[in-house]
Amino acid sequence: MSNDKLDKKMESMPHAHLSPKQKEKMLHTIINQADTEQKPSWKKAGGWLAPIGSTFAVILFAFILIFPNANDGNQASLEENGPEEISQTENVLSSIQLPTGTDLYLLFFITVMLIAFILTVIIRIKHKIPYDFLSVYRHVNKTHKRGELLLILIFITITLLSFFVFSYREFYVLLSIFCTILLGYRSYMEFKHEREEKEFMISLIWGSGWFTLFIGFLFFTLHITTFDEVIANYESVNPENTQVIEIENNAWNEDATSLLDEIITKEEFIIEDKETINDLFSALNTMDLRQRIMQHGDKDNYYSIYFKGSDIYAITVYEQYLSIDSQHYKVVGNNIIYEMLENGELD
Amino acid sequence: MDKEKIITDWFYQFSDEIYNFLLYRIGKTDVEDLVQEVFIRAMNGIENFHENSSPKTWLYSIAKNLATDEIRRRNRKKWKTFIPFKANHEPSSDESPDRLLQLNEEKKMLYEAILSLRPSYKDVLILRGIQSHTVKETAEILGWSENKVRSTYYRSKKALKNRLGGNIHE
Does one domain contain both B98 and B18? Predict the structure, then answer.
């Protein structure tokens, strides 16, 4: 068929018309609705109840997680140590003003997510971006869908490899990298193909939120501290004030039949010799530490060091970790104190 | 002049054309709401309209953007689950416009072939081929250069012919 014939065929396509009655009705609606649409519509506020409700639920959940967490570290052993230690522990806890360790991670996470959420609400209202309650995310196109699927597969592979091959436990760092890349890619695809929907702004905000989390987590996990810095809050923990140190060597019992048998005490000894106490402190002071979340598997064999008469409850020495007042630190380099205890140098 | 009066004038002049454009572009009969929306948007944004440009091409460009949004919204709607939610333009029927336009078998085939093409080809075929707009008008509506209109129109006709194969009687 020639181009001319095709042109003619297209030109001869019929045209529909609106009836005069329809036109009257439509015009009436246009004049009326144009006035109302100029005012910002807050009627859809009901749609926001779901995300606001979920945010409050998340905050509540986080608080439930944070508050018992602050006490967890000492609760298990309090029963064994009588009211004196209980009151000491309570004093220590009340002296802590800033969140640390897991609490700090959670607080940081919630703050960033809350700011990102508020920003998305503002952007949605300002640009009139609809929020589809309980809808499944629809990808822009097939390339987008395949791209996201590929990213998810890469993330799962890297996570499994890092966990099982390289024993990397900081899952949340990987998750923050993954979410940053995924949301960055999503916002790019939405910007490229569905710019007028403005959804890319929302993805960009969430992506930036995850990027902030990644930077924060990186700072937390790479930041090196020393024993001196950690115990700076506890003035009485120093070689001068410490007269007696009690050390307990514990191990997890793999054949345990009840909760009471889970930990076995292998050895217990008391150090009263001033020189040995000084050696212990100087060994502790030489160690560089990084705050970390500890896994159950890292707790095989450990030593609990009790400083009698000081305002710190206990320091637990694991093969690669140090636990001070229920916060966990990974030892950078050799764990000299663990080696000393294992070799019986402090006995 | 009062903006209500301007819109009323434009509505009586161009509503049928816009209606037809949307009818062909979306491929569904329930486009009255969209025609209304075109004029509502025009009325709200009339301050940004430059007097020296043509109201017809301006209205068409609004209609074209609305049609793109609407097609996406309808595709997105297929993904909605659990709870039905209110949308601005809920389709009232799934009837195809071939009945409304009373298309015969041959024209129906042509119409369906146009609908199956990519959006840019559809736009240019409807505006240039069916509605006989000039190259300049089409370029203004689509925001393209005149050369792009010419080349895309040529390519879209080629694609249309391929799609039709030998099905149209000469």
Answer: yes
